[in-house]
Design a protein that fits this description.
Blueprint: H1 3-11, H2 16-37, H3 40-57, H4 66-85, H5 92-102, H6 114-130, H7 133-143, H8 149-156, H9 160-180
Length: 185
């Protein structure tokens, strides 16, 4: 079923919409939640919370692409749950992915202005648009979906070591790009 038909079902308030949403995008949503939370039960709850959130925002929203929209909701919910669950603990895979990027992004020090956050998001999106498909794929899989280096290496048909080197170089390019764009890094 197409995303447009799923959205139409959501507008009709048909419960079949959730079934179709799960059938088409459930694997991606589950993966995002599992990668961040590291716990199958918490991830399942997060997936259900994601579907409820989608149900509540469509209508009036008509997101495009639907997969990105749903995964963003799942990522936000999983991140919130992760922080609640691990106030004094450490989830190595998700923390490791965040720590890898930390030194390349501007230090906010305090809650940043919404405008600055949007400008930074736009700059990162512009940077990603300049990357080749392969580099954009591995960057997105690591820092958006929080996949492990080993899993991405398998997907990309390379070794974990060579992938780690590529990620290091991409982060360096990101740092240079953000510096050139005037962001303090």
């Amino acid at each position: 079923m197409t995303d447009e038909k799923i959205i139409d079902l959501l507008f009709e308030r048909s419960e079949q919409a959730v079934t179709e949403l799960d059938r088409k995008h459930g694997a991606a949503v589950s993966r995002v939640a599992r990668n961040i939370l590291g716990n199958v039960q918490d991830a399942e709850e997060c997936v259900n919370d994601t579907y409820l959130a989608v149900w509540n925002v469509i209508p009036p929203s008509r997101p495009s692409p639907l997969r990105t929209f749903v995964c963003k909701i799942a990522r936000n919910l999983a991140t919130a749950r992760y922080h609640a669950n691990t106030a004094a603990k450490r989830n190595s895979q998700y923390d490791a992915a965040l720590e890898e990027l930390e030194e390349y992004l501007p230090d906010s020090g305090s809650v940043e202005d919404e405008i600055e956050a949007r400008e930074l998001a736009k700059a990162i999106n512009d940077f990603l648009a300049e990357l080749g498909y392969s580099d954009r794929f591995i960057f997105t899989r690591r820092y958006w979906y929080s996949d492990s280096v080993q899993d991405i290496a398998k997907m990309a048909g390379t070794t974990a070591n060579s992938l780690a080197v590529r990620l290091f170089r991409i982060r360096g390019k990101l740092k240079n790009y953000l510096t050139k764009e005037g962001f303090p890094v």
